[in-house]
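Per reviewer request, we include the raw input and output of the structure prediction for the construct analysed in the revised manuscript.
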Amino acid sequence: MAIGPFQPSDKVRIPWEVLLNGKALAIGNPRVQRLVLPDGTDMLGFPQPMYALKPGSYILELSLRTIGNYTVIMQGEFGSETIEDMEDFVIERPFGYPSINAATDE
């Protein structure tokens, strides 16, 4: 499942669809366990619960402004088992955003 890309002004929607043999699987305690920032550190305030859209389909919305690559680790329970999924997404410069070139002495 592809997430994004997003721009700094966008609301980041992290979806998770949990399937078993192609059928939706309702799980307990769906959550974003970790959110890894572009600098490789974990964002504070996690885990955060994901909200069920329907059985087997969960979402978390966030506001993130830092440009870069993120990794999200989602977890939930099915019986006595913990299931986990990982996705990557990017927040990129808005289209047409001017680039800044460093001046050099030559």
